[in-house]
Amino acid sequence: MNEIELKLQKAIDAANSVVVAGHVNPDGDAIGACLAMAACLDKVGKDVVVLLEDYDSKYDVIPGRHYIYQGDYDALTPDLFISLDASTPDRLGKAADVMKRAKATALFDHHLNNSIEADIRIVDTSASSTAIMVYSYIDRRIVIDADIGAAIYAGLIYDTGGFRHRTTTPETLEVAAKLMRAGVQFSKVYSSILFEKSRDKTPLFARALSRVAYAEPEIAYTYITREDMEELRAVGYPDGVVDYMINTNGVNTAVYALQKEEGTEMSLRSRVVNVGELAAKLGGGGHKAAAGFTVKDAPPEAVEMIVKKLQAEQS
Ligand code: 5GP
Ligand code: MN
To answer: In 1, 9, 92, 145, which residue has its Cα 20 to 30 A from 123's Cα atom?
Structure first.
């Protein structure tokens, strides 16, 4: 164990109550990392709850939803707060205030430019997921069962796009093999999280794709407005729009804008521009090849703004 790992071990040993939290609009990595960490801490006798916003039912294949706290956040003053997969305080949403009140704080993250303050900071921008970072801790602490394994596996596959992205390493696959040996129903987890489509969201997905436009050099962009949502009586937001676009031939950068009440959420993907750095300049963040941010402007103006910036980066 290195110095930081030892410090974490001591902080966990000293704590009775632990709050584990992931980023807003949680994805497979945030959910998987949080639920795996919570189950591990539960096994070693901690009083643990998880703070995560509501998430899509496809993630119910990840065991441990019962750890998610439904009560009043103001009532939480934990001995230890662990932030997972969040890179900026605002990404923690309401949980950021609980972090401020905690007696001790720790974080695990793999995003660029992590700016969350904590007593123990474990940041590895080369890690393919936060779940694999959490795995290192859990594997030292307990024997990983099929349920905890499934939660870690969910994070691994989500953030590597099913072991496709360049962030995938031999270690990622070695950990996946260990999880398979622990009895994880890998095929079920993989298809639920990465392939399952929702009938309700298909019309909106089609709307987004029908509006895809292209700009030089090799940029594809599209958007969904609140009017689209109303017109199509959509109940949720479709996944995979930006991934569809980046996997289109002749496209090396993709922009997907989703207008919500609070603002327009932008999803960026690129093989040629460091979109993590660009998003950070615009108040968001992420990784080199996948990033996001939110703006007040509505589409299509919001999209035009970012397309211009992406073009300027490549001129
Ligand atoms: P996605 O496009 O899948 O929503 O996000 C891609 C990546 O960018 C993820 O790693 C996500 O955590 C990060 N990201 C997306 N939106 C934001 C944002 O508003 N702020 C920050 N800091 N990161 C974001
Ligand atoms: Mn992640």
So the answer is: 145
